[in-house]
């Protein structure tokens, strides 16, 4: 039985999610008696990644590897998103989490579905500010803040 790209990706993401959970257990718990430590967020991300990957794995279980049915791979979109991810990693410390995440998500949304700028900007902004607020303000974690010129 030939595996499709989605199945390989699901298996790889399950392994990555397991690594997230395993490695998050090595992060020291908070010393102030709080129930929420710095290990909770990466562990939650690992669990979410595993659950979504299992769903993808089961959804692709009955599909075939017919190239005419699945269409050709779109290398241009892949290269654009890959380059955006590298730039995201390079500028994360300099520009801060909110700005780099907002720009990366906006690029990703526009690459996947051109147009609908307002929808892309609202979702990217809501996600960027929402995750920053929850992680930094609620969970007392640290993420790169805004650059000095703000």
From TrEMBL:
<keyword id="KW-0472">Membrane</keyword>
<keyword id="KW-1133">Transmembrane helix</keyword>
<feature type="transmembrane region" description="Helical">
    <location>
        <begin position="36"/>
        <end position="58"/>
    </location>
</feature>
<feature type="transmembrane region" description="Helical">
    <location>
        <begin position="117"/>
        <end position="135"/>
    </location>
</feature>
<keyword id="KW-0812">Transmembrane</keyword>
<feature type="transmembrane region" description="Helical">
    <location>
        <begin position="6"/>
        <end position="24"/>
    </location>
</feature>
<dbReference type="InterPro" id="IPR009936">
    <property type="entry name" value="DUF1468"/>
</dbReference>
<feature type="domain" description="DUF1468">
    <location>
        <begin position="9"/>
        <end position="144"/>
    </location>
</feature>
<feature type="transmembrane region" description="Helical">
    <location>
        <begin position="78"/>
        <end position="105"/>
    </location>
</feature>
<dbReference type="Pfam" id="PF07331">
    <property type="entry name" value="TctB"/>
</dbReference>
<protein>
    <submittedName>
        <fullName>Transporter</fullName>
    </submittedName>
</protein>
